[in-house]
Please model this.
Amino acid sequence: MPLPKTHLIIGILIVLLLKIFWLHDISWLTMIVIVIANVLIDFDHYIAACFATKRFLLLKNAYLYCINDDKTKVADLHLFHTVEFHLFVLIICFIFLFLSFPIFIIESSFAIIIGMIIHSLVDFINMAYHKESWRRYYSLIWWFIKR
Ligand SMILES: [Zn+2]
Model:
């Protein structure tokens, strides 16, 4: 799984390519929200590390926990990376849309889900490349069944 700084760099590149070649009208705010969401989704690794060790960890220690996890086993549940969480955020986006929230809120909420999807695709491609794609719980329901 790529490090947050790798996600940051890839996120910035993808958003710039989107603006140049496709979404010319995309605002800087929306672009920034996409990039931030694309990085912050990994906060669930911190939550998972705290759950696994049953204590509040310093970010540095959570980072060490994450990079030293057993590569021969399925990883901890990363809640924000599940299909269900993506759907949950997408539903919130459409609720904002149908309730006619201010346009910057609607755009920002869709920017969040776009950032999450970019992140998840980059994670998946990276894990598939390293033959590690089996290590992730992609579904919260699947995690409930399997644990
Ligand atoms: Zn990730």
User: Anything to note?
Assistant: Residues 1, 42, 81, 119, 123 surround zinc ion (CB under 6 Å). The radius of gyration is 16 Å. The CA atoms of residues 125 and 133 lie 8 Å apart.
